[in-house]
Specification:
Elements: E1 3-7, E2 10-12, E3 18-25, E4 34-39, E5 46-51, E6 57-59, E7 67-72, E8 77-82, E9 91-97, E10 101-102, E11 106-110
Parallel strand pairs: 2-11
Antiparallel strand pairs: 1-3, 3-8, 4-5, 4-9, 5-6, 7-8, 9-10, 9-11
Length: 112
């Protein structure tokens, strides 16, 4: 049974930083494509960042230079470091494995 558990969301002021974490079980992280998606209120879910088993990394244009996706295969963890946060980054952030498995999401609110 695959489980993805996110943590690290919260309320932060514009320009601030947050680090999201995703703990994976039931999969071999080193063999998986892991991603972070987000869904703002009234918006479609969108891919934010992705890292595959060869450490190829993708970022959507709106977060390039501000967000960093990393992983620790031994610890079965995926991280999303979010810096220079903007109000438009406000959303529920979801961890995803192989475009199939989803976590429950963690709320990120960027507001002054």
């Amino acid at each position: 049974q695959v489980q993805l558990v996110e943590s690290g969301g919260g309320l932060v002021q514009p320009g601030g930083s947050l680090r999201l974490s995703c703990r994976a079980s039931g999969i071999i992280l080193g063999l998986s494509t892991m991603a972070w998606y987000r869904q703002g209120s009234g918006k479609q879910r969108e891919l934010v960042a992705q890292i595959d088993r060869r450490w190829n990394i993708y970022y959507t244009d709106s977060v390039k230079g501000r967000f960093t996706i990393t992983k620790d295969n031994d610890a079965q963890m995926v991280y999303l470091q979010m810096d220079s946060l903007k109000t438009e980054d406000t959303a529920v952030y979801f961890c995803n494995a192989d475009q199939v498995h989803w976590g429950q999401g963690t709320q990120v609110t960027v507001s002054s």
